[in-house]
Structures are given as C-alpha cells and as structure tokens.
Fold this protein.
Amino acid sequence: MIRNQWYGILDSKELKSKKPIGVTRMGEKLAFWRSENGDVNCIFDKCCHRGASLSSGTVIHDKMTCPFHGFAYDSSGKVTLIPANGKNSHVPERYKVQSYKVKEKYGLIWLWYGDNKDELPEIPFFKELREGFSYGGFSEMWPVHYTRAIENQLDVVHLPFVHASSIGRGNKTLVNGPVVKWKDELMTFYVNNVVDDGKIRPLKQNEIKNYELLFSLQFQMPNIWQNIISKDIRIVAIFVPIDDQHTQIYIRFYQKFMKIPILKQLVNGMSTFSNKYILHQDRKIVLTQIPIKSELAMNENLIQGDAPIIEYRKKRESLKEKTE
C-alpha cells in the first residue's frame, strides 16, 4: 500500500452509535467506534492485556471497553481504567495500543495510512460530488490485491469482450488512444472505442483532436474511481485494501436528476441490480488473473490501449518511492 495517503475504508452507515465494529484494513485489525458526539475513533483491535478483540466489547462514556477484563481505552489508544486495580489506581503508560487518524466525510470513513503528522492533506474526493448528489450502493469482497481491482476499472480494452451483454454492446473493439491526463494525483482518461472495419488503425493519444469532448473516467489516488456518465449521473467505486490478497469494493450510484425523496431513494436503490451485474462480469475474469497483485514491471505485454493502467502503475511506483 502507498503510505501517507487518505484511504476511504468504510461506508459511514456501517458504524452505528454505541456499536463498535472490527475490520481488517491495510493488513491490520482495526476497531472503530463513535463517541457520544458522533466522532469516529479507531485503534488496533487487540487488547494490550490478554489479546482479546476490543471490537467485541462495548462503548461506555466514549471509551472502548474490552469484553474480557473491562480495560477501558480512549481514542488515543491509552488504557484509562483497569477495573481489577480499582478506579483510583494509576494506569502506567505501557498500557496502550496503536491509534489511527480517521475522518468522516462524504458518507465515508477515511483512514490516514502513514506518518503521524499535525497537518494532513485534504481528503481526496471528487469535487463535483461533494454536494448536490444523492447516492445508493453496495459492497462486496474480492480475493485479489486492490491493484488488480483498480486496474480493471482503468481497462478500456475489455469492454466488448467481458461486457458484451451490457456496457460493451456494439462490438467496438478498436481503441483510439486513450488520452490520459494527470492533475496532481487525479487521472482523467478519455475513451474513444470504435467498430473495426478493417480499414483503419487506432489513433495515438497525440492524434486525437478535441479529446475533452469524449467520454471520460477518473481515478483519484490512492483508491477511488468514477465513471462520468453525464453531469447528473456518476458511478463511483472505492477499492479498499483489506490485506495483500483481499479487497473490499464499495460501488455507489450518484445522481441529481431526481430530487423527490421517495423516488430518489427508489432510483438509487434500483441502480444496484445493474451495477452488480456489470461488476460480477468483471469479477469472473479478474479472479483468474495471475498474479493477484500488479507491479510496474511484470511479465505482461501491454498495448497502446492499456495507457491508463501503465500511467497508474507509474504514479503508484512514484508515490511509493517518495514514502519509503
């Protein structure tokens, strides 16, 4: 995983008031709970006393309480109470676990994976989706490294083959470009796939004029993607690293054309059926890829149409080198 980045890791709705949850993210067991004011807290999900799962405990007065012996932890991971020693007893500094910086924004819980800094960068969510849109969605786990799941959504070549019965209809197998542009850590790629009549060759990036008018998609490092269907409709995916062999994928349908509350919820909910169908077409193939993790240099013979994947790998490698 790339360090010193904000990762979207949970849907806000998954974390209820007074109900802690435990999940594995970035290869680490994490315990989450909400304070009485709704703030999100996150610490390592293993009691420093006898190793029990803290997320199996309860929340009492903003503290996470271990279910085994009642040790109470604050948001910094420090033990504030050891019941067997009495309420008035001092708790030594060694009784603590790792805490993690987390924020709740845009309906997601974000985790800062990296160095502990006083000032952290802005959470990297698509600016046009920060207000005005409603959404509905679902999530599922894939047994692959998150890089493979991400690259599937950067792959513009596979559409007429994997999605011939859905978004890949029309047999547009010839790939012009695609044109890839970066703005800091935001990649926009412009797609122009056409039917191959046997008389034309695919255009290179620099041969495509007025590419800004083409259909486009975006990927924001380190783990969120959006399909810009129109100014009022977007599909967003958040690829959450569980560990080196598993990824939790959150799919959201964003729209702002329907504003009537009941109908809005109906439209957002109905999108799940088509999005699941399309995602499972991808899943069937991605799970067969070897190896399950991608790298900048590996045993693959890439083609011109793989430009977004190549650019992603280069950017990922560059960011890793800066933080290692």
